[in-house]
């Protein structure tokens, strides 16, 4: 089943609608959706390494635009939608602690957490809730999300053929490794958030 899903994503990655799907997932992941854009960016870049930089730019721009929606949820709808999403991820009891940290370290929170597998929507919603400066939120989001997606693009562009061969030979092991990174990211979020 995993092989069929991988083959489908690789085949889909070559279609003209794939960049739109990447944009939608990147946008939604920054505000409400639990699936990270890497799930599409990696196979799309492996299928079309010549478009690595384009895919990174799409993911970055869409992620920051989605981050603005997350910010709006935190600023305008925290008591309803924002609180629900934060509680859904199990961080409801840590929001006040996170808000206090924003008063002193907001820029570092955005920069560091935007690079990690910690769900970025937590940063965007809390940034709005904490009334973090919108201009700096956008600038720092562009830096951190751009770094994340462009570093990934550079690695895949450079190691693409070898990475694809490695992934295809050891798909189960790679999937377990990625799952472990996500789980460790969520565990780290519990202790850092």
TrEMBL record:
This protein's UniProt keywords: Membrane, Transmembrane, Transmembrane helix
VTT domain mapped to chain residues: 53-155
Pfam annotation, one family: VTT_dom
GO cellular component annotations of the record: plasma membrane
Alphabetical list of InterPro entries matching this protein: DedA_domain, VTT_dom
Entry's transmembrane regions: 52-78, 134-159, 171-192
Designated name of the protein: DedA family protein
